[in-house]
């Protein structure tokens, strides 16, 4: 993948990795691990500073889940360019040039206040992302080309599994800096190994959060819930437990798998990848039992 290749169709801004073998109603998505920087992303700070926003390697870390029937939706574009985990109203109007007006009502959230809304105004450590004002049309194009196809691919995958199995379990996969920075709600605080976010119990069955929590804790990880990350737009949008749609955000601590300065995988990478694959296997086993011990009989067409 060349950084100068801008001839890709918008559908190539997201990859959907099919299960290997049986299909289970488990869907993973990695919205923040994209490393393809579009040529029109003229960020002001050096690329290595902008890349600190990425959840680098997260899609690859979870790839072992495919062998257990999971489907993985992966963003190709970087979240600093446009963030799939923000609503379309979460825009700072101050990003736009004079005379430019967003056509729809805006509802900037705390994330926009922190410089990390739909379009990031700040790079990590609080450095301005742009040396210029943005045009409304270019942000609209980022939505059309990246945000919308990502959400369509995720929604289509969740809908297909829900239709086939009657319910669907979704893990929204992220990583977090080991220590909160100046832009976070926990500056200077060392974080747990894993943070689970179900927006205080509203985006999935509590039993789903519990099975993930207990499995990871049994492997020796420190696991906390909803602090400092509760889950944002993706689990809010797709997690409707009363409709059999269960979404849980999983944040893994970057120190577990990479050098946070260079983004290079570290000695812990292989163990974490194996543990996440085992987690997927455990979740699928738990879903099978929940569906009446279906086991291989749950291998219905998606
Ligand atoms: Zn993330």
Element order: H for helix, E for strand: EEHHEHEEHEEHEHEH
What is Rg? 19 Å
For the record, the CATH class is: Alpha Beta
Bound molecule types: zinc ion
Q: Kindly estimate the percentage of residues that lie in beta strands according to DSSP.
A: 5-15%
How many individual helices? Answer: 7
CATH topology: Aminopeptidase
Walk across the major sheet and give the strand order.
1-3-2-6-9-7-8
Largest sheet: 7 strands, mixed
Arithmetic mean pLDDT? 93
Any idea how many domains?
A: 1
CATH superfamily: Zn-dependent exopeptidases
Q: State the CATH architecture.
A: 3-Layer(aba) Sandwich
Describe the structure.
- Helix 5 runs antiparallel to helix 7.
- Mean pLDDT is 93; it is low at 1-5 and 295-302.
- The protein is globular, with a radius of gyration of 19 Å.
- It has helices spanning 47-50, 58-61, 110-113, 136-165, 206-218, 233-238, 269-290; strands at 14-17, 26-30, 71-75, 122-123, 127-128, 168-176, 194-197, 223-225, 245-253.
- The strands form two sheets. It has a seven-stranded mixed β-sheet, sandwiched between helices. It has a two-stranded antiparallel sheet with strand order 4-5.
- The chain is built from seven helices and nine strands; from the N terminus they run ββααβαββαββαβαβα.
- The chain has a single domain (12-82, 133-288), classed as Aminopeptidase.
- The protein is an alpha/beta fold and 302 residues long.
- 40% of the residues are buried.
- It binds zinc ion.
- The site of zinc ion has 3 residues, from loops.
């Amino acid at each position: 993948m060349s950084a100068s290749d801008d001839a890709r169709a918008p559908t190539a801004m997201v990859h959907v990795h099919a299960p290997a073998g049986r299909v289970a109603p488990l869907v993973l998505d990695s919205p923040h691990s994209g490393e393809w920087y579009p040529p029109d992303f003229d960020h002001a700070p050096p690329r290595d500073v902008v890349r600190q926003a990425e959840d680098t390697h997260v899609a690859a870390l979870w790839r072992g889940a495919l062998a257990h029937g999971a489907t993985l939706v992966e963003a190709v574009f970087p979240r600093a360019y446009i963030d799939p985990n923000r609503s379309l109203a979460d825009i700072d109007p101050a990003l736009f040039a004079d005379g430019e007006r967003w056509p729809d009502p805006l509802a900037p959230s705390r994330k926009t206040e922190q410089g990390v809304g739909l379009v990031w105004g700040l790079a990590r450590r609080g450095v301005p992302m742009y040396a210029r004002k943005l045009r409304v049309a270019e942000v609209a194009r980022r939505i059309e080309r990246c945000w919308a196809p990502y959400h369509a691919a995720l929604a289509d995958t969740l809908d297909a599994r829900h239709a086939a199995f009657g319910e669907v379990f979704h893990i929204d996969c992220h990583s977090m800096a080991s220590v909160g920075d100046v832009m976070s709600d926990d500056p200077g605080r060392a974080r747990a190994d894993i943070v689970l976010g179900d927006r205080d119990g509203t985006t999935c069955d509590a039993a789903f959060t519990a099975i993930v929590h207990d499995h990871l804790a049994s492997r020796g990880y420190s696991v906390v819930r909803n602090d400092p990350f509760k889950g944002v737009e993706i689990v809010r949008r797709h997690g409707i437990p009363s409709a059999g749609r269960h979404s849980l955000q999983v944040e893994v601590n970057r120190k577990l798998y990479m050098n946070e300065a260079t983004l290079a995988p570290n000695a812990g990478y292989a163990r974490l990848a194996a543990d996440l694959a085992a987690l997927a296997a455990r979740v699928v086993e738990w879903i099978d039992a929940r569906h009446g011990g279906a086991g291989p009989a749950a291998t219905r067409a998606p």
